[in-house]
Specification:
Blueprint (H helix, E strand, L loop, with lengths): L13 H23 L8 E5 L5 H9 L4 E4 L2 H10 L6 E4 L8 H4 L3 E7 L2 H14 L3 E6 L20 H4 L5 E7 L7 H22 L8 E3 L6 H6 L4 E4 L9
Parallel strand pairs: 1-2, 1-8, 2-3, 3-4, 4-5, 5-6, 6-7
Helix pairs in contact: 1-2
The chain binds pyridoxal-5'-phosphate (PLP).
The site of pyridoxal-5'-phosphate has 14 residues, from strand 8.
Length: about 240
């Protein structure tokens, strides 16, 4: 019955077909939102957040061409990265990183979206130095003020800038945030506008070796609004897995 709804080639499973269709639809929505904000689809990077699904779904995403994959829990990221080590996936950590998990996390990730304290930044710097590599991070900003959320308060961030120059093995590339749970679409838009203004202000004042171009904001419920307000990275989870059991 359901098979008739999709163009399925013989090797593709239902889950793979559904994920491919969902992914295509998200890409179309990203492209329209980018266009509305005078940008190109290629100016906005999609990170598929896979915390609700297993290794097979991640493999299906990769097969459909989506290779930037985000996880919110470090241990789950390690587990999936190890299981999928042959897939050339670029892993993003989008959730809180405890300092005792820095060592196991760095070898897997291309970007940590959730640097939320100076102590964590220093731990990442030490470990990256030990590995002889550079780690790219975003500063997580708690724009909504939800006490349950991690992140720097917006007015805390400017005073961090001078310290960023001391981090030799951490490349701070921008900021990340989530809209407040109770903000609603218009509240989310106001928060995204505020984040972009913060990013622009930081960019003007940051040390010369730091470039704060990235703005990681927008999830399944609000990624189009985030793009309209300047997001360069959106983190989409549940919308990619709609219609699956
Ligand atoms: C889960 C999660 C997402 C994706 O959320 P959806 O609403 O499922 O799209 C994005 N960012 C972070 C930090 C998350 O934890």
């Amino acid at each position: 019955m359901l098979q008739a709804c999709f163009a399925i080639d013989s090797d593709e499973t239902m889950v793979e077909a559904r994920i491919r269709e969902n992914l295509n639809r998200i890409h179309e929505r990203i492209a329209s939102a980018a266009q509305r904000s005078g940008r190109r689809a290629s100016d906005v990077q999609l990170v598929a957040v896979t915390k609700y699904v297993g290794v097979d779904e991640v493999r299906a995403l990769a097969a459909a061409g989506c290779r930037d994959i985000g996880e919110s829990r470090p241990q789950e990221l390690w587990r999936k990265a190890e299981a999928l080590s042959s897939e050339s996936i670029r892993w993003h950590l989008v959730g809180h990183l405890q300092r005792n998990k820095v060592r196991n996390t760095l070898p897997h990730v291309v970007l940590i979206h959730s640097a939320d304290s100076e102590r964590l930044l220093k731990s990442i710097d030490r470990e990256a130095q030990r590995l002889g590599s550079k780690t790219r991070v975003l500063l997580e900003v708690n724009v909504s003020g939800d006490t349950a959320k991690h992140g720097f308060a917006p007015d805390e961030v400017p005073s961090l800038l001078p310290q960023l120059a001391d981090l030799k093995s951490v490349e701070v590339c921008g900021i990340m945030a989530m809209a407040g749970l109770d903000s609603g679409p218009e509240g989310a838009r106001r928060e995204f506008v505020q984040l972009r203004a913060l990013r622009d202000q930081l960019r003007k004042n940051c040390p010369s070796q730091v470039s704060l171009d990235e703005l990681s904001m927008g999830m399944s419920g609000d990624f189009e609004i985030a793009i309209e307000e300047g997001a360069t990275i959106v983190r989409v989870g549940s919308a990619l897995f709609e219609g699956m059991e």
